[in-house]
Amino acid sequence: LKEGALFTNMVSSIMPNQSEGKVKHAIEESSTLLIRYFVGLVIQVITITVITTIVLKIFGIKSALLMAFCFAIFNLIPYLGPLIGNFMGVLIVISSNLDVGFYDIMLPKIITTVIVFFVIQLLDNFLLQPNIFSKSVKAHPLEIFLVVLMGAKLGGVVGMVLAIPAYTVIRVLLKVFFSEFEVVKRLTSGI
After folding, report:
1. Which end of the chain is more exposed for a tag (fewer CB within 10 A), N or C?
2. Alpha carbon distance 51, 135 (integer Å)
3. 173 in helix, strand or coil?
């Protein structure tokens, strides 16, 4: 961050002179879209935290904010994240209710927490993620869904995490360097 244009200048110096403008444009546009993507992640975490906290408070669960925030952060990790977040929530419920009876108070709170996390996870998967990510990287929600599936097939969990940022950069590079092709025009029409 301190050396603002260092990366751009470094990449531009190894490219031919006639491509220097295109390279700088591609880097700037990629940076803008990636910043929008990470802002989308922050919005997703905040939204999940707020909704989950409110629902858990309605059901009288102690430490609702802590549980909701842990769940929202772990939710960013595909597949395993929601399970880890759910497990952390159950641990917090247990540790917050050590002085009460297991079957009459603690078990219903554990079941309530698991159900709330499951419903919030579904809401996030089908409503929040596709809309937030499609707006942040300027791609159709179905496109984002397919990219994440391909990332899962190619690289597992790591592939899913890196799929949207990699796809965003690839789209920008295609738009800047191969805009004369009809397929590229259709893929990059939103950015």
Report:
1. N
2. 21
3. helix
Give the three-state DSSP class for 191.
coil
- Sign, Cα dihedral of 39, 42, 46, 51: positive
Residue for token pair 């554990």: 110
H-assigned helices in 75-124? 80-96, 107-123
3-state SS assignment for residue 11? helix
First to last CA, the chain: 25
Question: Structure pTM?
Answer: 0.78
Question: With 0-12 CB in 10 A as exposed, 13-18 as middle and 19+ as buried, what is 84?
Answer: middle
Amino acid at 47: T
* Cβ-contact 37, 136 below 8 angstroms: yes
Sign of CA dihedral 126, 129, 134, 139: negative
Given a contact cutoff of 8 angstroms between Cβ atoms, the answer to whether 120 and 51 are in contact is yes
Per-residue pLDDT of 115-128, as tens digits, reads 999 999 999 988 88
Q: Tokens at residue 144, please? A: 């984002």
Nearest to 156 by CA among 89, 71, 80, 86: 80
> What one-character DSSP code corresponds to residue 190?
T
Distance CA 61, CA 65 (A): 10
